[in-house]
Write the structure tokens for this entry.
Amino acid sequence: MVYVLVAAGILVCAILAIGSKRLLVSAIWLAATSALVALMFYLLGAVQVAVIELSVGAGLVTVLFVFAINISGEEAMTLKPVMPKPLAWGSILIAVGLTIYLAIQSGGLGLVLKASTETPEILWSDRYLDVLLQIALIFSGVLGVLGLLSEGKPSAQKEDQA
Amino acid sequence: MSNFPVAFIVILSIISLAGIGFYCLLATRNMIKVIIGLQLMVKGVAMAFILGGNLTGQVNLAQTMALTVIVADTIVAVMGLALAVQVRHRLGTLDIKALSTLKR
């Protein structure tokens, strides 16, 4: 029962996140979706990722969204979409249908039970390259935040000096 | 997970999250909305990892995978937002169609 409620909440929050007119409201609904996804992780037994999703997905990303929307300002987007809506829905239905078809073709959900090792052990021994990659990614994220904060126009300044 | 309906419910929410995010990517022109759609899709993918780990009894391996996905997704959001803010400063709009002026 809890699973149904959480899944329905995720669906409603996601639809409201893409459906609302104001960007700020969309960001808040995205945070709500993230919190419910974290709850679903917890229910599925992934406790550590649930905590990270809650702090990063619902916390940090929302702060960044609100910050960026405040800097760039709300913009009324009543423009025509890039792709006609029926075509977009059609491609989604095709993608979902293909996913279900491939899932059925692959023989359903086969259970392969193996001895489970601890998360930190896997992370730091088997997947240490991924950890290095994540460190590099976090550095690039810092550069991204610098890009978010910088307001200067280097090219214009160069032209002025010339 | 022993009872199948729970896996079915989670799969439904994974597919719906991915579908809603995909629709947002295809149908919106606002850069920040596009990033929101991308975030929704990736949340569905992370949930699929966790469900897979749960079904195969390897939750810890799935957690490390989902952790990588969440970190990468956050960095993508940061870079996308920085790009959107800079585009807004330089072109005065968040419309992705306006970026086609870069071709000239």
